[in-house]
Design brief:
mainly alpha
Length: 200
């Protein structure tokens, strides 16, 4: 049936998109990690500058760290009490509007507070990007599930089904029979992707 063939084409297109999305997500996360690490480095530089300029310098209590998660950048703050190497994490549940409130950083100097506020204003952008990437992830998985394409996405099968530059597409305004993959042009593919909302 025509509808079955159309659904099969959608499944292939979403599966191909899964492979592309994973590559793109990896590139995005690398850049976000670099940006996050530069914020941590800047914070540490502020601490060193404060240490050199203040003869009564008191060691800062808080230190940020970042690590790469499965589909996001994980940002953590730890509190050091100055007794041995032990530290305690600052609860991330305190984040409001993508920022950690300064009220959660008690017992630090004025210079340290300024550096924390500055770092948090920049970390907020990373957290915001994380939240949008999560929405993209969930939305794409939901689309794949609708057409039953989850199994074809596993293990990069998508690239074996339809290579990126030879995607199967369908021109909905052409003849009412379903075309075979050999009959589709790049223009057909673009028109089809626009029609189903994959390209704007």
């Amino acid at each position: 049936m025509k509808s079955d063939k159309l659904e099969s084409l959608l499944k292939q297109e979403f599966s191909r998109l899964e492979g592309c999305r994973l590559d793109d997500f990896n590139s995005v996360l690398i850049l976000m990690m670099n940006m996050s690490e530069s914020i941590v480095d800047e914070y540490k530089r502020f601490r060193e500058e404060d240490k050199k300029s203040d003869s009564r310098f008191r060691f800062w209590t808080y230190v940020p760290s970042v690590e790469r998660g499965a589909a996001s950048v994980v940002i953590r703050w730890r509190r050091y009490k100055g007794q041995g190497p032990r530290s305690s994490p600052v609860a991330t549940s305190a984040v409001v509007n993508f920022k950690m409130p300064i009220s959660k950083f008690d017992g630090c100097t004025r210079a340290e507070k300024r550096a924390i506020v500055h770092a948090e204003s920049r970390f907020a952008k990373i957290r915001k990007m994380n939240s949008h990437l999560l929405v993209i992830n969930k939305s794409h998985k939901a689309l794949v599930d609708i057409v039953g394409g989850s199994s074809s996405c596993a293990g990069n099968v998508s690239r074996e089904i339809t290579p990126r530059n030879q995607s199967v597409a369908l021109d909905m305004d052409e003849a009412d029979h379903v075309k075979t993959s050999d009959e589709f042009t790049e223009a057909d593919r673009i028109a089809f992707r626009k029609k189903i909302g994959l390209d704007r």
